[in-house]
Predict the 3D structure of the following.
Amino acid sequence: MNGYDEYFVVVEGEYRLKMNDETTILKKGDEYHVPKGTPHSGESKKGTRTIYAFGSKRAKRINENQ
């Protein structure tokens, strides 16, 4: 189980997201948000491309306070 929110978008192909005993088929241009702590899994067809973003505590940047 993840300790952060997860967001992704399908850039190309097809992704099958399994969450809460349901399967959602996502295609090019579809976006999805998986809330923190939600058990999930997925599978994709060959050639599928996705972009993921994970939300968590922001990392401190070098020289951020200067």
